Amino acid sequence: MTKPAILLFPILLFFSSCSEKLSLEDRRDDIATELISDLSADSLYSYVEWLQDMGTRFCLAGNRREVAISLRDKFMSFGYGNARLDSFFLEVTYRDVDYSLWQYNVIAVLEGSVYPDSLSIMGGHYDSILSGSEGDPFSEAPGAHDNASGVAAMLETARVMKDSAFEPEGSVVFIAFGAEELGLYGSLDYCRKASAESAKIKFMLNNDMIAFETASSEYNWWVNIMNYDNSEALLSDAEILASEYTSLNTYNDNELNQYSDSYNFSRYGYPSLFFFKDDPDPDYHSLNDRIENCNFNYCREVTAVSVALLVNRNIYSLR
Fold first, then answer.
1. Could you give the CA distance from residue 134 to residue 181 in angstroms, rounded to a whole number?
2. Residue 202 has what DSSP assignment?
3. Residue 132 domain-assigned (yes or no)
4. Full residue range of the structural domain in which residue 260 is found
5. Cβ distance 184 to 191 under 8 Å?
């Protein structure tokens, strides 16, 4: 009479395991749904307007430190008391003039409750620039789409996570990178330091130019999610979560994946994704890259994918 009990034991374990798995999925879904519901297109608009109104965010302009301090203070206003500037020295030639000056990444951390040294990064560059024929970026470079939109996505994610008292089990790190437009220098500096310190970076999500969409119907909205050789699994998760939590259509075209900050993370062995608009932007690197040409409902949808990924990869247990 003991044989049936022995046979049932692994079956009971199987159903118990399935029940726990489903419950964990439900917990992740509940948290992701709550956070995504709090994302606001109006908030995204306000951040882009705030950044655009700085006049220029060109990394060689005289206001570059003030821009970084303003971003740090914005994180602090959300409750990130650990927000800080991470300085690095840049030597670069621009329009036949040599420059040697300090640059700044802006970093804020939502510390993990179980594995605080396990880092999931959401980033985007905050500097702006103009093409050679457009004018003087030292005085004006609005950069609403490129890349106030990506910074806005990061700020809004940071805000809703803090407002909801979200407790990730691994740490979520928000980084506004400097000096991207002249050669991805901010992310390069961060990756060099992280590698030297043997930082445990799980993955990096890069949002760069995510607010230009001309289709009137949200069901015709597309986003390009670029990946690298070491981030196929991350891409697969992003595509699934986009279909579950947004109206976005996704595709994967990696032709331009070396032209933004996620590329440096991939070079240093950290899985990364690059979220990028679908439509070609006629105002790229121009004085017309302004808020009125952005679609903030679309920007909210793209932001939601990063939120879902950060939740799903930082909730490991039933608590």
1. 15
2. E
3. yes
4. 33-312
5. no
